[in-house]
Structures are given as C-alpha cells and as structure tokens.
C-alpha cells in the first residue's frame, strides 16, 4: 500500500472528524497515542523490561505534552523511574493535557517546571535518564524555538542520550521538514494517526530517525490512502506502475526514445541518458547529437542508435530541426537537455523543437537553463495541453533559476515550490535532491525515500533523465514515469552503496544495477498481482 502523508492542517481536520463525526473523545485519542509511544519504548529501547529504567519526559502545554504525560503514567505503572519537566506553569495546561497532568499529580509522579533557573536540575535529570521523551511541540510549530526551550533542546542533543520524539522532533516544521533553529535529534519518532510530510523531507528526516506511525484508533475511512495529495513512494506502489510485458510483445511495444543532447566536451551526458532509457526497458533509443560529435557518440553507444544533427560550434544548429523530421515522426518520447549546451543557436533550436513537436518530453539540464532565460513556453496558453506530457527534472539550482528565487528559498519548502511550479506551468516537476519531490499539475505530490550521497557525482542525473523517458515510452503517465524513475534510480544507488559503499559510486554503476532493481519490482508485482 502507498503511504499517505499529511500536512498539519489536514491532521487537525482528521482529529476533528474523529472527535465530532465519529464521537471518539479526545482523551481516548490521547490515551491511544500514549500507548503507541509506550509500545515503541518497550520494543525499541528497553526490550520489554522497564523495571528500574529511568525516563525523562519533556512535556509542553499542548496535546503533544499530554501524550507525553500519558506515557509517563504507563511507564511509572510498569516500574520505571519517571521524571517530568513541564515547559509552562501547571495552570496553563488545558483540555485533555490538563486532565492527564492532574492524573500524574494524583499518582505522585514528580514534575518540575523548566525555566532559565532550572538548567542544573535538568542536567541532573538527563544524567539519570536511560531515555528522553520529547513531547515539547506539536504539528503547529513554526520558526525557531525561543529561550529557554532553545537551550533545553541544545542540552538534550549534547547529552548523547537516546531520544524518542512524540509526533515530530521539537523544532521541526511538519509541512516542510524545515529546521530553522535548535531541533531535537531523535533516534525514533512516533507520529500519531498519520505520518507527517516533514518527517520524510530533508533535513527533517535526519532529525526524525526511525519513524513509526502510532495507531490512535482512527477509523479506516480517515486513514484512506487515496484521500490525500501527498504520497511516500514504496516498492509496491512503483511495481504497480510498471507495464505488463507479454511473450508476444516486441520492441515496438516498448516505445522509441530520442535523446537530444551533447555538445563539445559533454557527449557523455547524452550517452548516459541513452543507456538509462535502454535500461528502463524502452524498445528503441536514438541518441541525437551534433554532427561533429557523432563519431564519439557512435563509439560510446552500442545498443542505442545514433543520429548526427547539423551543428553550430559543437552544439545544435538552427537548421537541425528540419534534419530531424523523419526521425521525430517515428519516435514516441523525447529526452532533451543532457549536455545540450547554451549556444544561441541551440536556444533557438530548442524553442522550435518544443513548439513544433508534440510528444511526451523529459526536459533536463541545459534545456532547463534555456527555459529559465525564456519562460514563454512554460506560460503560453497555446501549449497548455502539450505541457501536460512534459516532465521537468531540475536540481535546486536549476529550480531557483526557473522560479527566480534563491536556492535556500527553494529548499525551505520543496513540496510547496515544486507543487506551485507544476500547477503554474501545467507540467510534472521532479525537484531532485535528497528526498526528491515529484509534483503533478493536479496537485498530487510524491516523495521519494530512496537514494544516498553516492549519487552526488557527474552523470547520475543523466541516467535518471533517460530512465524517466524510457518509462514514459512504455506507456506510464508523466507522474508515474517520474515517480518510478526516481525510486528505481535511488534504490539502485542504495543497493550499490550497501555492497561497495557510497564513495566511488559512478553513473555507470547505476546502469548495471537498474535491471536487477526492475527484476525485483516485477517479481513483487507478479507475487502481489500488481501489474496492470
């Protein structure tokens, strides 16, 4: 099953539906949250032997703190030593959190209020603790933690003690994964009801550690995986995207990709993209390169065909499009940009190509940089229907140029920026980087969990471009091809890293691993009846 991710506002709505539509009291939801955290403590940290162990509970005044107080009670009942630090005066706790604070007080579980004068007391509690439970902030947190809580978070992180975060590590923004100041570095996060999108985006994923979803008794209707707009990709979802391959099929059934790219010094980009398309399972691939580079490309490519296009100073000439008429009448998908260059004549060639040829197209690298200089093709209503079949694959720097903003601003809200660009331009956007984001014009957003820093080397993006184009050629929709391509690409890198390590991973390694990834996905599809 696909994993549905939610934003903070969506989670609040689900909570309200549970309480008012299904008449589940908030106290029951809070009790179930605490029991989910308790289970994680026993399973992951204390081997189901809490007697004599010591837990430090940091409880804020909201429902997040209330969840922590429930945990405190259950750990105390099971023989653990429990110390609680409140981050506000007891009388400021309201609603269900106040009820649980009164229960804790009636049971005689000691608590203290943390303020600027309690640092030394906190240090002693940390030293005694086997586990720290962070229940400070909830999903409504934005910005930077204020003092004295900023100091509290720093002290906890410096202690080296294991931390379990309730719902989100305190200091992390639920909707973006943004960390703007001190943030709890958790070993495990138990997120309540539904997983929050910020836990699966960087840097949020780094702070969250292992993420578990706590069952707080939401009815199945509220947990419907198809109801939300955000999805975490997984093997089963990607396996469902893959096309059926029958014994009667031939290469014509799997599409023909034309990879258009290469300029002097960058023939490798076009050849890697061409081989990426072949490794995806595409039936035919033709690499279109400037004529002066044709001998080099032809020598590098054995399985792909090559086509020499009229060139200008090692790039594509304005007249190249006319020379491609016959080829373009036979191909089913274009991949444009790897090693393309930004020569003025190439810019004219690209604009003519995209305005005159109506084919599913993956646009990458220098083609994106040229579009950033002239965004008319992205905005012209005459090409609205055509753009529905375009997949743009920018890295953060290219996205910054396309959106005319800083790279840091792009990274602060990756799903938001990718989604906005997708809707405004009517294209599928693949915002590359750690936890790549795929956004579709209809509002669907996919988050990819695969990949590692071994991909931070030249040529790996070119392989991805070809991989997505090859999947498009086999009949996947743009968002399916983008999601599957990114997942397969990252999973191949993860498998290589597990055997060889990340340093030294090169693009060619991905080309060798992709068939094995596809084999496993097809096997999963066959076993699960996932193929369409």
Give a written overview of the molecule.
The strands form 3 sheets. This protein has an 11-stranded mixed sheet with strand order 1-9-20-19-18-17-16-15-10-11-12, sandwiched between helices. The mean pLDDT is 95. With 532 residues, the protein is α/β, with parallel strands linked by helices. The chain contains 22 helices and 20 strands. The protein has 2 domains: 3-226, 3-Layer(aba) Sandwich (Rossmann fold), CATH 3.40.50.10260; 235-528, Ribokinase (UDP-N-acetylmuramoyl-L-alanine:D-glutamate ligase), CATH 3.40.1190. It is elongated.
Unreliable spans? none
Q: Count the helices. How many? A: 22
Rg from C-alpha positions? 27 Å
Let me know the CATH homologous superfamily of the largest domain.
Ribokinase
Strand order of the largest sheet: 1-9-20-19-18-17-16-15-10-11-12
Intertermini distance: 15 Å
Compute the number of strand runs: 20
Give the mean pLDDT. 95
Strand-residue proportion: 15-25%
Question: Which range best describes the helical content: under 10%, 10-25%, 25-40%, 40-55%, 55-70% or over 70%?
Answer: 40-55%
What's the level 1 CATH class of the largest domain? Alpha Beta
| Overall 3D form | elongated
The secondary structure category is alpha/beta
CATH fold naming of the largest domain:
UDP-N-acetylmuramoyl-L-alanine:D-glutamate ligase
Domain unit count: 2
In the CATH hierarchy, the architecture of the largest domain is 3-Layer(aba) Sandwich
Largest sheet: 11 strands, mixed
Brief characterization of the structure:
This protein is an alpha/beta fold.
């Amino acid at each position: 099953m696909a994993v549905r991710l939610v934003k903070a506002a969506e989670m609040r709505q689900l909570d309200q539906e549970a309480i008012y539509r299904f008449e589940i009291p908030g106290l029951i939801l809070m009790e179930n949250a605490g029991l989910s955290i308790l289970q994680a403590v026993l399973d992951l940290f204390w081997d189901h032997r809490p007697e004599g162990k010591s837990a430090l509970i940091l409880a804020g005044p909201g429902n997040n703190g209330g969840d922590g107080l429930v945990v405190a009670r259950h750990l105390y009942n099971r023989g653990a030593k429990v110390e609680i630090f409140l981050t506000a005066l007891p009388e400021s706790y309201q609603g269900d959190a106040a009820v649980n604070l009164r229960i804790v007080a009636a049971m005689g579980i000691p608590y203290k209020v943390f303020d600027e004068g309690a640092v030394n007391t906190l240090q002693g509690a940390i030293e005694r603790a086997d586990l720290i439970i962070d229940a400070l902030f909830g999903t409504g947190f934005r910005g930077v933690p204020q003092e004295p809580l900023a100091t509290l978070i720093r002290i906890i992180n410096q202690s080296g003690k294991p931390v379990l975060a309730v719902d989100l590590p305190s200091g992390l923004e639920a909707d973006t994964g943004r960390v703007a100041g001190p943030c709890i570095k958790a070993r495990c996060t138990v997120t309540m009801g539904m997983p929050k999108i910020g836990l699966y985006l960087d840097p949020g994923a780094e702070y969250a550690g292992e993420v578990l979803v706590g069952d707080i008794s939401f009815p199945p209707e509220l947990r419907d995986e198809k109801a939300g707009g955000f999805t975490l990709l997984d093997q089963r979802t990607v396996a469902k995207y893959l096309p059926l391959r029958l014994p009667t099929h031939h290469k014509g059934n799997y599409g023909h990709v034309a990879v258009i790219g290469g300029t002097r010094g960058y023939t490798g980009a076009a050849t890697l993209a061409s081989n990426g398309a072949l490794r995806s399972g595409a039936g035919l691939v033709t690499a279109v390169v400037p004529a002066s580079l044709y001998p080099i490309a032809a020598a590098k490519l054995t399985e792909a065909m090559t086509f020499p296009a009229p060139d200008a100073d090692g790039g594509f000439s304005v007249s190249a499009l006319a020379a491609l008429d016959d080829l373009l009448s036979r191909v089913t998908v274009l991949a444009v940009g790897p090693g393309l260059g930004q020569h003025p004549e190439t810019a004219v060639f690209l604009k003519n190509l995209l305005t005159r040829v109506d084919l599913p197209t993956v646009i990458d690298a220098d083609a994106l940089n040229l579009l950033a200089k002239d965004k008319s093709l992205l905005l012209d209503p005459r090409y609205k229907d055509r753009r529905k079949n375009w997949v743009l694959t920018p890295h953060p720097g290219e996205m910054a140029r396309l959106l005319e903003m800083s790279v840091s601003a792009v990274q602060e809200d990756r799903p938001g920026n990718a989604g906005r660009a997708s809707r405004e331009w009517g294209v599928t956007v693949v915002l590359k980087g750690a936890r790549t984001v795929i956004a579709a014009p209809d509002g669907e957003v996919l988050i990819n969990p695969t990949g590692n820093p071994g991909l931070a080397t030249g040529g790996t993006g070119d392989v991805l471009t070809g991989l997505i184009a090859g999947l498009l050629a086999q009949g996947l929709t743009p968002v399916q091809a983008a999601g599957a391509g990114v997942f397969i690409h990252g999973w191949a890198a993860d498998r290589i890293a597990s055997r060889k390590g990340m340093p030294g991973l090169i693009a060619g390694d991905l080309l060798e691993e992709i068939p094995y990834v596809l084999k496993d996905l097809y096997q999963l599809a066959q076993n699960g009846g996932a193929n369409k």
